[in-house]
Design a protein that fits this description.
By secondary structure, the protein is α/β, with parallel strands linked by helices. It is about 35% helix and about 15% strand. The relative contact order is 0.11. Bound molecules: NADP nicotinamide-adenine-dinucleotide phosphate and guanosine-5'-diphosphate-alpha-D-mannose.
């Protein structure tokens, strides 16, 4: 049985990749960093099928110990500070973790298990101020954020370890990929979450930044397969992974509101605080090499992706209404109460009645079972 080690296993991609590798019959090991409160929500459903190990990309000896303990055949380096705006407010940490962290992992492999195959999660952000369109493996980089700069470093150090030490290292230059598991601060999920809340009457407005930015958006579940395929080849190489189609943030917003029968223009407002010091205005990938060599193509298209994410947010908000702790929610006028079996935090406002009807048709309350 092959062993895979995934850094960033608790993230969006880590969760889909774990599922995929389990399906392929792998023994899956995930690296998690120590936190005072762990967030395993994306891997809760598979937690008993994977082995979790504490280590940190900032700590060399923890990485060497990890590789020594696991003896992986394949290492997927997905951990990173991945939110672009935060890289301007924490540029040193971003460089240390997202950039130098790649060298630390590669050093651990070189010193402990040089036969392990290595996947580096590189990014279309490296193209930044794009030199040509669409972007492929030959397109020059011009990163526009400390995050993008760190990813360029991670890309070239991977190439360098391949050329210097013969490590099987691949850099996957992935364009934006999304899913219902996407972090809430990224624009797609921010939009679909807001659409669901606005539809259900618990939010009034959605504040966004640059609606004209264009991205090549795909589905994360499709993209993790490309990561794996890169490590199954005879020779290591670098690949662009993308859909080849670009859409603006405005198109995403418009389609997402359409899905619930609303006009986005009534709800979306611009807040300049979401503008970036230097914007990546447009990205569109040419994944023909991945198609030719890996036989990889995406299954989910843009419309399906938007609908999938809106539907998932609507569904999870409806489900959560019965179990959520709304005691902090003063904004929507939730009422508080109590009964024998449950601590009752809120009743659903009458205007939401149709969405939150429970099985017996009664008005649902937000509550938590008494301990
Ligand atoms: P994500 O959801 O933000 O997940 C990031 C992961 O990195 C989380 O598991 C996080 O752990 C972990 N991490 C952060 N800081 C860490 C530290 N100091 N030590 C150990 N682990 C740490 O990101 P994603 O969307 O899955 O993306 C996966 C990778 O692909 C990232 O490297 C990202 O930059 C890259 N990428 C993503 C896209 C995209 O569109 N999604 C495109 C191109 C490249 P915690 O749970 O502890 O925070
Ligand atoms: N986050 C955010 N919030 N972005 C907004 C907003 C907003 O309110 N309004 C407009 N945008 C625009 C941003 O200016 C950007 O041009 C675009 O939406 C996409 O932003 P994000 O969803 O935050 O993603 P990203 O493209 O910056 O970065 C993601 O993709 C990269 C691959 O190209 C991340 O996943 C990176 O980790 C990844 O490398």
């Amino acid at each position: 049985m092959k062993k895979a080690l995934i850094t960033g296993v608790t993230g969006q991609d880590g969760s889909y990749l774990s599922e995929f590798l389990l399906e392929q019959g792998y023994e899956v090991h995930g690296m998690v960093r120590r936190c005072s409160s762990q967030n395993f929500s994306r891997i809760e459903h598979i937690k008993d099928k994977i082995a979790l190990h504490q280590a940190d990309l900032l700590d060399q000896s923890s990485l060497e110990a990890l590789v020594r303990d696991v003896q992986p055949d394949e290492v997927y380096n997905l951990a990173a500070m991945s939110f672009v705006p935060a890289s301007w407010t924490q540029p040193i940490m971003t460089s240390d973790f997202t950039g130098l962290g790649v060298t630390r992992m590669l050093e651990a492999i070189r010193l402990v298990k040089p036969s392990a195959k290595f996947y580096q999660a590189s990014s279309s952000e490296m193209f930044g101020k794009v030199k040509s369109e669409p972007q492929n493996e030959q397109t020059p980089f011009h990163p526009r954020s400390p995050y993008g700069v760190s990813k360029v470093y991670g890309h070239f150090i991977t190439v360098n370890y391949r050329e210097s030490y013969n490590i099987y290292g691949c850099s996957g230059i992935l364009f934006n990929h999304e899913s219902p598991r996407r972090g809430i601060e990224f624009v797609t999920r921010k939009i679909t979450d807001a659409v669901a809340r606005i539809k259900l009457g618990v939010q009034d407005k959605l504040f966004l930044g640059n609606l004209d930015a264009c991205r090549d958006w795909g589905f994360a579940g499709d993209y993790v397969k490309a990561m794996w395929l890169m490590l199954q080849q005879d020779q290591p190489d670098d690949f662009v992974v993308a859909t080849g189609k670009k859409h603006s943030v405005r198109e995403f917003v418009s389609l997402a509101f359409d899905r619930v029968g609303l006009n986005y223009e009534k709800y979306v407002e611009i807040d300049p605080k979401f503008y970036r010091p230097a914007e990546v205005c447009t990205l569109c990938g040419d994944a023909s090499k991945a198609k030719r060599v890996l036989n990889w193509e995406p299954d989910v298209d843009f419309n399906q992706l938007v609908n999938m994410m809106v539907d998932a947010d609507l569904q999870s908000l409806q489900l959560n209404a019965e179990t959520a702790d709304y005691s902090q929610n003063t904004q929507t006028g939730w009422e508080c109460g109590d009964d024998a079996n449950f601590v009752v935090y809120a009743t659903i406002p009458a205007r939401l009645f149709n969405y939150f009807k429970n099985a017996s048709g009664h008005r649902v309350i937000a509550r938590r079972r008494r301990a």
